[in-house]
Amino acid sequence: MANPLTLYIPIKQDPAIQKAAQEAHDHFVTLHKEQLDRFVDVHYARFVLIPNPDGKGIQAICVITTFDGPMLPYLRFFWEDPELRKLFAGITAMALHPPASPLKTLTEFANFIEANNLSGGSDDLYQAYGQTVRQIKAAFPPSA
Q1: Could you give the number of structural domains in the chain?
Q2: Of 5, 9, 6, residue with least CA distance to 99
Q3: 39 lies in which domain range?
Q4: I want to staple 132 with a disulfide (CB 3.0 to 4.6 A). Which of 14, 26, 68, 92 is the partner?
Q5: Phi, psi (5° rounding) for residue 87?
């Protein structure tokens, strides 16, 4: 069964953070496609910018993913991959309310993600199909 993650992080309003958020958005897929491909349980992943109410600048960032399996193994993959850990370190650096200290363990990382996850679990996710990413890729291998 697929599960959602909607990581919502209000960000600082200074120009350097605003620029960093825009750049993270603009290069998200290009920079992280290899890692996301390697973790074969990800259906979708997006990096979304939430504008300020006045339309000037970015209020928050959202990392929105849909994945197979439970949350902790999913987060473990992100924690153990150096490039993805770097992505999340960048996200916490942009946060308006960052963790009190740098995240040093998988448990601290998982707690941070869960505290900022707007998804209520698989109960609030519509899924049109019941297959996992692995099943879909096995049924429809890429053509050579």
Answers
A1: 1
A2: 9
A3: 2-139
A4: 68
A5: -60, -50
Tokens representing 107 are: 């448990």
Task: Residue 73: give its domain's CATH number.
Answer: 3.30.70.100
Q: 51-74, pLDDT tens digit by residue? A: 999 999 999 999 999 999 999 999
- For residue range 36-46, what is the model confidence (pLDDT) as tens digits? 888 889 999 99
What does each C-alpha distance from 103 to 8, 45, 99, 112 come to in angstroms? 17, 22, 7, 8
- Calpha distance 130→11 (Å, rounded): 36
In the prediction, which pLDDT does 44 show?
A: 94
CB atoms within 10 A of CB 59: 16
Strand boundaries in the chain, DSSP class E: 2-10, 42-51, 58-68
Asked whether the beta carbons of 62 and 50 are under 8 A apart, the reply is yes
Query: Among residues 98, 110, 78, which one has the least CA distance to residue 10?
Result: 98
- Residue 144 within any structural domain of the chain: no
Mean per-residue pLDDT, 18-34:
92
Count of C-beta atoms within a 10 Å radius of residue 144 = 3
